[in-house]
Design a protein that fits this description.
CATH topology of the largest domain: TIM Barrel
Distance between the termini: 37 Å
CATH superfamily of the largest domain: Aldolase class I
Structural class: alpha/beta
Bound molecules: S-adenosyl-L-homocysteine
Strand order of the largest sheet: 4-5-6-7-10-11-12-13-14-15
CATH architecture of the largest domain: Alpha-Beta Barrel
Radius of gyration: 21 Å
Strand content: 15-25%
Number of helices: 13
Order of helices and strands: EEHHHEEEEEEHEHEHEHEHHHEHEHEH
Largest sheet: 10 strands, mixed
Length: 350
């Protein structure tokens, strides 16, 4: 685990796990149980200043104020879909950078799609997040605050989280794992990690590392192709870890965690949607406990990739006829540019 994270010289208290906060309080000569009280103020009551922590002595509150800061996000833009209840947020971070979250309503509850980095280094050809460039990793506090702010602003209870917004979560591994610890803490919002999914373009060594932690998180792989040549042409990460290494890592993830892996496949006309592609995909994933989720590729300004409902449904039929477990992702918030990275991109252009 990394050392304490600081913002302008003060420790970012929202990025501390409970044991880390306990250690900090013991260093100040306080009893350990104070940490749980502070955790409750921060993560359950969600207060934003130390002076409101009324069950602590004035002296301790002053000490906390001197050492720690309580990070915050500011909602710059909030777009509401007129066709479904999707809400999209553009947030400003403490250093002026921008990120996005999307709140989606499903029958089983509200799920928030959060960002894990400011921008992305992965360079996937079809993705808007990478075009605006990579700036920095998000702190655990900034992942949590996307949930807290969306919940406060919308008044909706968020029951699930997907790490599928801007950024590559496994390229910010330590902070993401720390976020998992804090978000699932019983003294905090106590979210079951069974309701959390992590989506990755395929940083293979980190998939093995995550599997060993056996957290119960659902792993979602952005596969988008069924062979090395076509995958490398749209996803540069494939040159580093090829598609067979990736699938082996997924098998290991299932073996270690018992969690069925989900494969995302953006259907792109003329790139990956032929019968031959379907056959290769079936062979690649054959016999694996998994699920394929087809996404009609979202058009972005900078690229000419397109897709249609018709070709997506045709591709789905090829796969289901081969006995594969396939769904087509519902397009939520289509009228509000809800695809990854598009709002930040607009903000950067300004
Ligand atoms: N870096 C992670 C998470 C962020 S991308 C990953 O690669 O999985 C979230 C998902 O949106 C990925 O499956 C990504 O491939 C997909 N995506 C990005 N741009 C898209 C677009 N224009 N159309 C459809 N899906 C897209």
């Amino acid at each position: 685990m990394p050392q304490n994270i600081t913002i302008n010289g003060k420790t970012d208290i929202l990025s501390l796990t409970l044991p880390q906060l306990e250690a900090e309080l013991e260093r100040l000569g306080e009893k350990k149980f104070r940490a749980a009280q502070i955790y409750d103020w921060l993560h359950v009551k969600k207060i934003t200043d130390f002076s409101s922590m009324t069950n602590l002595s004035a002296q301790l509150r002053e000490q906390l104020e001197a050492i720690f800061c309580i990070n915050s996000l500011f909602i710059v833009k909030r777009l509401a879909s007129s066709t479904d209840n999707t809400l999209k947020y553009l947030y400003r971070l403490y250093d002026g950078e921008h990120i996005e979250s999307v709140l989606m309503e499903y029958e089983h509850g509200n799920t928030l799609c959060i960002s894990t980095q400011v921008g992305c280094k992965m360079g996937c050809r079809f993705c808007a997040s990478t075009i605006a460039g990579y700036k920095r990793d998000l702190l655990p506090s900034e992942m949590l605050l996307q949930i807290y702010e969306a919940q406060r602003d919308s008044g909706r209870k968020i029951s699930g989280v997907v790490l599928m917004g801007i950024g590559e979560p496994l390229d910010n591994y330590d902070n993401v794992v720390r976020f998992f610890d804090i978000v699932s803490s019983q003294e905090g919002i106590n979210m079951s990690l069974r309701h959390v999914s992590l989506s990755t373009c395929g940083i293979v060594p980190k998939i093995y590392e995550l599997a060993k932690l056996r957290l119960g998180v659902t792993l979602s792989i952005s596969l988008h192709s069924s062979d090395n040549a076509s995958r490398s042409s749209i996803m540069p990460i494939n040159d580093k870890y090829d598609i067979y290494e990736l699938v082996s890592a997924c098998k290991d993830y299932f073996k270690e965690t018992g969690r069925r892996v989900s494969f995302e496949y953006a259907v792109i006309s003329g790139v990956n949607d032929t019968y031959d592609d379907a056959q290769k995909l079936n062979k690649l994933l054959g016999g694996m406990m998994c699920h394929v989720n087809l996404i009609p590729v979202n058009k972005i300004d900078e690229r000419d990739y397109t897709s249609s409902k018709k070709s997506t449904m045709r591709f789905k039929k090829y796969l289901t006829d081969m006995g594969m477990n396939v769904t087509v992702r519902r397009t939520l918030g289509a009228d509000i540019n809800a695809a990854c990275g598009q709002l930040r991109r607009e903000q950067e252009k300004k």
